[in-house]
């Protein structure tokens, strides 16, 4: 599956990491990430930083060790790839002793070359984070409409579903705006997940080496229980697992 939208920082990378870590380290489902975010490779960078923080922070090492002995789950694979080679990269993972059940692709949203289009056509599911911002909505709707009209309704691809996903939702305002957007989405024949991800500082925080606070966004440890609460990460995972039938 892919979390994919046009550029615009609606939360693809953040939600990819959170879902992957939650599923692997909390639910025990083997996952992998193919980071196609050339040239930043932000998840690969995050993984390197997570390992480095672990080397330098005894408490993190203790948590990782505890987690390994309890779950027998090592850190999931994070592979980098040009978007056009992402499917071949994912296929290499099938040779592992524990091949992943779910492979996440952090894809560029721009369908500006044939290779990217082919890769998108090879996804089973696409989840597209959106925020209530006019520019992000316009480009996301355009992206989803192309995928829907060219691939899904024609049956000319592997894609079984494309879902929008509200991210950075501020509960106190904009309710009306969300309703208006949902109506437009519905009129285009597209779907939105029921789970909304709130706007919250915990999503922005990286674990630093001398940070004693509980971790949320890490590629080697699960999001801390106290921070999962109120984040809707569990609800999102349950809804996604229901859709992809795992
Ligand atoms: N629910 C949230 N609440 C608060 N901040 C969030 C939330 N989700 C993501 N963010 C923050 O928003 C910023 C953009 O998120 P992210 O990098 O995941 O977006 P992206 O879609 O991958 O962007 P790009 O298109 O540049 O790759 C990050 O700083 C991230 O920490
Ligand atoms: Mg990103």
Task: Provide a descriptive summary of the structure in words.
There is one protein chain. The protein has 246 residues and is an alpha/beta fold. Helix content is 43%, strand content 12%. It is built from nine helices and seven strands, in the order βαβααβαβαβαβαβαα. It has a seven-stranded parallel β-sheet, sandwiched between helices. Strand 6 (161-166), helix 7 (175-187) and strand 7 (191-192) form a beta-alpha-beta unit. The protein is globular. The protein starts with a strand and ends with a helix. The mean pLDDT is 92. Bound molecules: adenosine-5'-triphosphate (ATP) and magnesium ion.
Q: How many β-strand runs?
A: 7
User: What's the main sheet like?
Assistant: 7 strands, parallel
Strand portion: 5-15%
If helices are DSSP runs of H or I spanning 4 or more residues, what is the number of helices? 9
| Span of the ends, CA to CA | 13 Å
Principal-axes geometry comes out as globular
- Ions, cofactors and other bound molecules: adenosine-5'-triphosphate, magnesium ion
How is the topology of this model organized?
Elements: E1 2-3, H1 12-26, E2 31-35, H2 42-56, H3 58-71, E3 78-80, H4 86-92, E4 102-106, H5 114-121, E5 125-130, H6 134-152, E6 161-166, H7 175-187, E7 191-192, H8 225-228, H9 233-244
Parallel strand pairs: 1-4, 1-5, 2-3, 2-4, 5-6, 6-7
Helix pairs in contact: 1-9, 2-3
Bound molecules: adenosine-5'-triphosphate (ATP) and magnesium ion.
Magnesium ion (MG) binds next to helix 1.
